[in-house]
């Protein structure tokens, strides 16, 4: 058992969880609810890439860097539209309803996407091989093996985290997002177009999900309509672990979860319980530090 | 929800169920099986209604409680069953399964004290998955391949007898002075707490009671299907039960029972549309939340104001 190797593998997995968790956290920050459909937008992103990449290969030649970037951009754009559409149709009419109603609707949207996609007339339930977007290299460092895909994942995550941080902290839209997150009513009184900002946040979160979906699909053996469920749940745990609503927290949580899961997978007795680890961590963190590692605890006012 | 003459209904229900079970050998086995499915669904939906509906604690782990009760009572049947008196040990094994599920409910209820809404939904979902993973890795209950050859002991009498007891116990509990606390917690937790309702205890009681009856339903299910597989208790099974509660109107006993009957019978009549069943469920959830958040069968328009 080579611990360093496990840590490298764990970082690759953790970076994907971190990307998905970023999307959860952004939507939660603005609307204070968990977008259950996030994991299905991730799946749709992977499928968009699956259908788009042969077309782009025809234009750009196979496995070119620019073509790969195009695939990411197209999938992100398509998913951003899907995300905004979901928000417009399902969540916006419920803006002033009890939180439970919105939560149940979100579960409904998630199930609707999953089962529509599983229908044999739509995408079908059987897994399909994901095309190789970039030539894969493995780099040997002594006894360690690093895959170029893992490096790609980590690099993309770091770039997107910095990008998100920039958008939220330094731009006008970001200021508006923070205002909506702080107090929706006051923000709208100050002339912030609340609906547009929420729509934008959903678009951004869904674009992140699409990119995470492609990165996940590159690692996974195949793509199928339920591929988003497991990483989605784990990324949610990661977001809570880091402190939901907190961007660096989401990344930290994702990386911790990825590492723990890979290391536990390497221990013989524990590997069968891999699926339960994320939820075990979630329960412990909610009992011990409900605000998450980097989150601030807030007092609920009456 | 007022339920006049509940005791009479209970006795009538049990009497009818016992009477019906005497005639069952002459009935069509397929219809009999469906009828038992309906009874089990009623128990599950009514017990989840206590947690999700009356108390307002959204739980997505009901299948987990069902699995605990089902596996435990099936394990009792397979290991102890033949040595003891055949008539009484079955209900006792069901109750044992229910008690173990209730103990697990206590375990789940404790974190629920600190969590609300979406967090609770995810945590209960997580508990359900943890129970499934543990079941898949426990040799004593067959691990991943499941339990086979469970004796067929469930009949109409036991199923509807327990269904009647479940409905009676839960309505009586909610209508008691103590049970008003459930509805108070549902309506406004802070207001309830400041009026002297022990919200912690109320929520845990709801979880334990709900889990107990789900465990019994699991035991009935095990001795009805004669086969249990851990994968049968994944979170989609929980969603099935949640849909019944939402469709019937959260906190409305009669509506939930009607929805349980409807949603159990519907797939039997619509066999050729089975691949569209879950799509339909999902659409139903969304449309109900958008248009009729009080449930499909709610007639009175005076909706309870939710916090």
Structure description:
The complex is a heterodimer of chains A (302) and B (307). Chain A has helices spanning 3-31, 38-60, 65-91, 99-118, 148-170, 172-182, 184-189, 194-219, 229-242, 247-266, 274-288; strands at residues 138-141, 144-147. With 302 residues, chain A is mainly alpha-helical. Chain A has one domain (3-288): ABC transporter involved in vitamin B12 uptake, BtuC, CATH 1.10.3470. In chain A, helix 1 (3-31) packs antiparallel against helix 8 (194-219) and helix 6 (172-182) packs across helix 8 (194-219). Chain A starts with a helix and ends in a 14-residue tail after the last helix. Chain B has a single domain (6-291), classed as ABC transporter involved in vitamin B12 uptake, BtuC, CATH 1.10.3470. Chain B is mostly helical and 307 residues long. The longest helix of chain B has 27 residues, at 86-112. In chain B, helix 6 packs antiparallel against helix 9 (199-225). Chains A and B meet through helix 4, helix 9 and helix 11 of A and helix 5, helix 10 and helix 12 of B.
Question: Which terms summarize this structure?
Answer:
heterodimer, A: 302 residues, ABC transporter involved in vitamin B12 uptake, BtuC, two-stranded antiparallel ribbon, B: 307 residues, mainly alpha
Q: What is the gist of this entry?
A:
The complex is a heterodimer of chains A (302) and B (307). Chain A is mainly alpha-helical and 302 residues long. Chain A is 71% helix and 3% strand.
CATH class of chain A: Mainly Alpha
Radius of gyration of chain B: 19 Å
Biggest pleated-sheet summary of chain B: 2 strands, antiparallel
Strand content of chain A is under 5%
Shape by Cα distribution of chain B = globular
List the helices and strands and how they pair.
The complex is a heterodimer of chains A (302) and B (307).
Chain A: H1 3-31, H2 38-60, H3 65-91, H4 99-118, E1 138-141, E2 144-147, H5 148-170, H6 172-182, H7 184-189, H8 194-219, H9 229-242, H10 247-266, H11 274-288
Antiparallel strand pairs in A: 1-2
Chain B: H1 6-23, H2 29-54, H3 62-79, H4 86-112, H5 117-136, E1 147-148, H6 156-175, H7 180-187, H8 189-194, H9 199-225, E2 227-228, H10 235-248, H11 253-269, H12 277-291
Helix pairs in contact in B: 1-6, 2-6, 2-9, 2-10, 2-11, 3-4, 3-5, 3-9, 4-9, 6-9, 10-11, 10-12
